[in-house]
Amino acid sequence: MNPTPLAAVPAAPPRMTTDVTPDGTLLVSGEIDASTASTLLRALTDALRAHPGGVALDLSAVTFCDCAGLRAFLAARYQHLDIGRLPLRVVAASPRMTRLLRLTGTGWLFDGPRTEPVQ
Which domain holds residue 68? Predict the structure, then answer.
C-alpha cells in the first residue's frame, strides 16, 4: 500500500475568511480564535489603510469569536484612533458576535446600525 503524497491531500477549508468590498466593508466569516486572530488583525489594518475614512464590519457570518479575536478588533480600533477617526463600525453581526460584544461591554466601541437585534 502506497501512502498518499501530501500534495494529493486536499487542504482543509479556511476556518476564517476576510474580504474587503470596494466600498470599504470588511466581510468576515468563520471562526476567529488564537490561530486566526493575527490574520484578522492584518486584514483589518490593510482595510483601514485602503479606506482611511473608516471600515464597516460585516460580521454576520462569524460563527465563533474568542478573546483573541476580540483583541484583534480592539487593537485595530485603538491603533487607528490615534490619528483621530472612528475606524471600525459594525454594520451587521451574527447572534454570537452580538452576544460577545454585549457581554464584554465593547459593542459601543464599534457602534453602528445592526441587522441582528441585540439580545
Answer: 19-110
Domain for residue 87, yes or no?
Answer: yes
Cell of 100: 460577545
Which CATH number goes with the domain that contains 106?
3.30.750.24
Number of domains within the chain = 1
The answer to whether the beta carbons of residues 76 and 46 sit under 8 Å apart is: no
Q: Say which DSSP state 14 is in.
A: P
**Overall size of the chain counted in residues:** 119
DSSP-H helix ranges across the chain: 37-50, 67-81, 95-104
Cα angle 79, 19, 26 (rounded to 5 degrees) comes to 45
Is 91 inside a domain boundary? yes
67-81 vs 37-50: helix crossing angle, rounded to 10: 30
Predicted confidence (pLDDT) per residue in 41-96, tens digit: 999 999 999 998 889 999 999 999 999 999 999 999 998 886 656 789 999 999 99
Asked, for residue 5, whether it belongs to a domain, the answer is no
